[in-house]
Amino acid sequence: MVCPFCEHCDTKVVDKRESDAVSTRRRRECLGCHQRFTTYERVEQPDLVVTKHDGRTESFNPEKLRKGIALAIAKRPVTGDQVDRTVEEIEAELRSAKRREVPAGLIGALVMEKLKALDHVAYIRFASVYRDFTSASSFQDEVKELLRSHREARGDKVEHS
Ligand SMILES: [Zn+2]
After folding, report:
1. Rounded to the nearest whole angstrom, what is the distance from the C-alpha of residue 21 to the centroid of ligand 1?
2. From CA 137, how far away is CA 105, in angstroms rounded?
3. Integer angstrom CA distances of residue 110 from 61, 115, 117, 151
4. CA 91, CA 107: separation in Å to the nearest integer?
5. Domain residue spans of the chain
6. Residue 52 clears pLDDT 80, i.e. is over it
7. Cα 16 to the chain's mean position, in Å?
8. In this predicted model, which residue has the larger pLDDT, 108 or 129?
9. DSSP 8-state assignment for residue 137
């Protein structure tokens, strides 16, 4: 740990507080200049792997998801905060099933579900792009099935129709 004031390398912890479930806040004091500063220690989330339609995989990238949503909401009355929250909610939802691999289609389905509630025009835009990536003949059925199997994996009660 390097002191932000004098770049001395030795610090001591003067106070430790749990700030929330995912990060620990520590007050530190530099042993060189005796200034105090705060550090946050975060638990690194395990990698989430996305499986694409062609079988290839990639790590889940919230930034890529944010860009996809940003394209759909261009010039729509949706704020950056709402986009951030949507990305966070989708990531939390993906991790909640406790599966290491998630199908790319499920991410698209979750985005559509969120956009539908947020802005109908953005939803239509996203759906028209997403539809090109799915090969299934019945688009709506595929989306429904993805959401249903995800919620089942998560342990939710699912109504069978
Ligand atoms: Zn210092």
Report:
1. 29
2. 14
3. 15, 9, 11, 11
4. 9
5. 11-42, 49-154
6. yes
7. 28
8. 108
9. S
pLDDT of residue 161: 52
Ligand 1 centroid – CA 40 distance (Å):
18
Q: What percent of the chain has pLDDT over 70?
A: 88
Q: How many CB atoms lie within 10 A of CB 10?
A: 11
Q: How many CB atoms lie within 10 A of CB 18?
A: 8
**How many whole angstroms from 4 Cα to the centroid of ligand 1?**
7
pTM listed for this prediction: 0.62
What is the rounded CA–CA span in Å between residue 133 and residue 139? 10
How many angstroms is it from 42 CA to the middle of ligand 1?
23
Residue 114 has what pLDDT?
A: 94
Q: Which has more pLDDT, 146 or 23?
A: 146
Residue 96 pLDDT: 87
Give Cβ neighbours of residue 37 (< 8 Å, ≥ 6 apart). Answer: 3, 4, 5, 27, 28, 30
Query: Measured in angstroms, how far is the CA atom of residue 9 from the centroid of ligand 1?
Result: 8
